[in-house]
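Researcher: Let's continue the batch. This sequence belongs to Biotin carboxylase, and it's 447 residues. Same format as the previous ones, please.
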Amino acid sequence: MFDKILIANRGEIALRVIRACREMGIQSVAVHSTADADAMHVRMADEAICIGPPPSTESYLNVASIIAACEVTGAQAIHPGYGFLSENANFVQIIQDHDLTFIGPTAEHIRVMGDKITAKDTMKALGVPCVPGSDGGVPDLASAKRIGEEIGYPVIIKATAGGGGRGMKVAQTAADMESAFMTARAEGKSNFGNDEVYIEKYLTTPRHIEIQVFGDGKGNAVHLGERDCSLQRRHQKVFEEAPGPAISAEERAAIGKTCADAVAKIDYIGAGTIEFLYENGEFYFIEMNTRLQVEHPVTEAIFGVDLVREQIRVAEGLPMSFTQDDLTINGHAIEVRINAERLPNFAPCPGRITQYHAPGGLGVRMDSALYDGYSIPPFYDSLIGKLIVHGRDRPEALARLNRALGELIVDGVDTTVPLFHALLEEEAVQAGSYNIHWLEHWLETNL
Ligand code: ADP
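Model: Same format as before. Here are the structure tokens for Biotin carboxylase:
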């Protein structure tokens, strides 16, 4: 059993992990950059260690400093949160080489799923349905053009190492292929150090549906249904919900079982998310994330489980605390991502919080590292809070979201809260009848 866990992250997700540790009687160690000396995760953890200067490459991505912090504090395990080092196979290997435990999957699973071509091949072999496209990497423009004709336009060119919505370019017609192919390659190279790309059919009206899976590393795995994350801006999620308003119980059970069986077969350990596009009743795999996701609380709300606690348990070698039959859906949950950004361009808006008041009441959860007087540093991403609401059904969750957004006060910086007030007025949002392109169109005409 672990006595002490180090959290290699910051912000709300660091708080999320500290809270789970505290409930389990485990000591927590925060790490922080010099810019984060006054951050909430530093205040809330049992111990805190400075690991470097503000740029994340020198602090939150500084593997040597993080390992040293474990040695200094006697932490036996590392929780990576999401982002930063959470999907870095080399980091996992180094942790193991130091006889520490990584709270997450194996280096091998991260490596396989981190390369989108290998991930797709693996999933295909495990019986998971995939988006039609090139068979692996596309070496040159001539092959790209030939494949474009074969699958039929529009197509999307994706960097195999891509992530966070970067390294993807759409070619509407053959005439766009050259620039899309070259740009996706260049973005792959400059952002991820890998210029390999592949091609997929570009789906024009899909929803983004992702299945939460969880494994014990010993061949047992379950699914915790889906999340619908179709409201996206620049391929980035802004509003997520569970269950998905367009998914039937039969579809959930079938795709859920396919996913749970697939990860059971590879002895997957911990939390994972298998992402699909869903169009005309069909699921098409796009990628797997081998970590806890930003939007995991909506799943926790409807199933009444603590996914971080489960991650820690299986990392200790314990069994999962639930079986598939224990997992039943209760009500409906919605999360909105509150970013310190100025509309209409979503320009990052760091600065000092002059007043912060979190909403409360029945069915409301606010995961945020803000406090009165806190200064949001300009060095990291702009997510400052997640508001999660839970109701008996979707209309109740929507009404609760509206009410909770009205209670929330974040003064001193601009935030994305006005976007959610406006979205809640929209018929498509009230009906849950949108696809992944809806928000982009809405933003063009409404902001
Ligand atoms: P990333 O790793 O950068 O998040 P993903 O492969 O998960 O990239 O795709 C992110 C988003 O991009 C999807 O949720 C969807 O909105 C869009 N997308 C990806 N592949 C396709 C496709 N084949 N057709 C249409 N949209 C796609």
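Researcher: Any comment?
Model: The first helix runs from residue 11 to 23.
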